[in-house]
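Re: that chain you flagged

S.,

Sorry for the slow reply, it's been a week of failed gels. I finally had a moment to sit down with the sequence you sent. For the record, here it is as I used it:
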Amino acid sequence: MPQPWAGHIVEGRTTVLGRHHPTRHRGTLLIHAGRGPELTGVPLPRPAIRRFGGFVAVAELIGCHPADGPCAPVPPASRWHWELARIRPLSRSVSARGRPGLWRPTNEQIRLIERQEPLWWPCL
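Prediction finished late last night. Pasting the structure tokens below so you have them in one place:
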């Protein structure tokens, strides 16, 4: 997901992912920051966590609902809100090329993430 949204999750400014599709997945989810910022007019996160092109946090996906009411800050064009809990920022991002949808990281990426935070995937 592009910055500033990945950074806002890491900073605890939002616990909602704005997505264009629903998901049945519940459980651990890796938060991936895209290579570049989304030009939204929303400020980027503070420089200490302004990371691009890698995994930046581990969270629990606890729910998914239509974007039909006010929620925490999310991208404005989102049609679905994915609800997050237990967000745990990684102290060091783990480099990874993003992909659409949920996907599994490589074994090496898992090893590097688990040095910081025990987890179970998939990723976003």
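What I noticed first: Residues 28 and 119 are 7 Å apart (CA to CA).

Talk soon,
D.
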